[in-house]
């Protein structure tokens, strides 16, 4: 009896050693990578790496060959340079894939840029997707990027953003997060690992840039590009009055003469332009809150709402939203990283977040 017990222990010991060795070997040949596939920027995280890679979501095509020839920063630099030879596109629109072929080669590029083990036999790729994506969009993500060497795991963005903001999505107390990105604005309230309610607006920072170029053309008859509009927005944009208003110099083309021109533009007017987007965010929040139960709404009112995404860095959101909704508004130190930080947490311990992973792939709107 004693002898067979010892034998069993020995075998168990050897078995667990074999598992450890197996896991080690598997680790050598497989890798986990998380990608926040964004409309303007994509951010990549590796399992054991502190740093994130932030890469513009752009692809440059050679028009003659019809082939992608550059990605990310390099492609962005080619924008508008030789429009007869290259076409530079952003394959994601409003937070989801608009051009699947281009996104597929872009994702392959992100993997080749970020993979530590170039010869890994298998990659587990954690991809985020807005809650408001359609069932067709969800299917295209799940099946489109899958290959014999790649398993795709979908995480809905609000779950990732909330985890990235340091919120406990499994607690009973509801957490509400508003993610204002480049293409989408999404508000979600999560409790006990479930989505209580979410609302999506398919416009965000890129829409603001477009509004600025349109209004500048109309108001001061100056043609400016989207990147000039974005630069002005980043530096001077606000959604709540400040005492730092000034007239800024804007370079562009005079609409009538077609010549280069320099004009002054008041930052107060810029705020007026951004107001259109800020109003639609307020409407989104209002309609979201009205869909919550009375109990959840009053708990959200005392817990507050968290802001994530690059567009939440426009000055004055906290003041504006607090004054409108009488709810504490909490800003994150690095809101553009919220989604990838949450994705990384999931990637590092997927077993702890299994319910979120399951809901993310099953629930379609
Ligand atoms: N300091 C800033 N002030 C205002 N807007 C900013 C600032 N920094 C970045 N942005 C804007 O944030 C947007 C990008 O944010 P983010 O990276 O969160 O979006 P994304 O993930 O690419 O888009 P989406 O989540 O909608 O697919 C851009 O429109 C950019 O102009
Ligand atoms: Mg985003």
Write a structural description.
It is a single chain. The protein has 365 residues and is of the alpha+beta class. It has three domains: 30-162 and 339-362, ATPase, nucleotide binding domain (Nucleotidyltransferase, domain 5); 168-204 and 274-335, ATPase, nucleotide binding domain (Nucleotidyltransferase, domain 5, 2-Layer Sandwich), CATH 3.30.420; 205-273, ATPase, substrate binding domain, subdomain 4 (Actin, Chain A, domain 4). 43% of the residues lie in helices and 26% in strands. The strands form five sheets. A five-stranded mixed β-sheet has the order 3-2-1-9-10, sandwiched between helices. Strands 13-12-11-17-18 form a five-stranded mixed β-sheet, sandwiched between helices. A three-stranded antiparallel β-sheet has the order 5-4-6. Strand 15 (247-254) and strand 16 form a beta hairpin. The termini are far apart. The mean pLDDT is 90. The structure holds adenosine-5'-triphosphate and magnesium ion (MG). Magnesium ion (MG) binds at residues 36, 38, 181, 309, 339.
Summarize the structure.
The chain is α+β, with helices and mostly antiparallel strands.
Oligomeric state: single chain
What topology, given as strand order, has the largest sheet?
A: 3-2-1-9-10
Q: How would a textbook summarize the main sheet?
A: 5 strands, mixed
| Residue share in helix | 40-55%
* Named CATH architecture of the largest domain: 2-Layer Sandwich
CATH level-four homologous superfamily name of the largest domain? ATPase, nucleotide binding domain
Could you say which overall geometry the principal axes of the C-alpha atoms support? Answer: flat
